[in-house]
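Final report, section 2: Outcomes. Of the targets proposed, Transmembrane protein 14C is the one most frequently requested by collaborating groups, and we therefore present its record in full.
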Amino acid sequence: MPADIAAYCYAALVAAGGIMGFSKAGSVPSLVAGLGFGAALAVGAQQVSADPANYHLSLLASSVLLAVMGARFRRSGKMMPAGLVAAISLVFVVRYGSRALTGSQW
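The predicted structure is given below as tokens.
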């Protein structure tokens, strides 16, 4: 199976966001959450690349990010970073959720 480049990019974006949050605001929670979720998404991307039916970790991590960052966006109204991460997470929740519901491999 080919590598799931989009999922690896998503993982890198989340990890980079945590690093940026730490470097700009000194936020240790941003660093820990960004690197933790980035790592989970990278492992999930590797699992999906090996077997497209093995999407469970990716779906879980994307769902949690959607819930947390969606709530932050709703409270703050700021597109960066909460709105952007929530929007990208929504795309991946739909992507992996459709696999769960239909068995398709997109």
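The mean pLDDT is 94.
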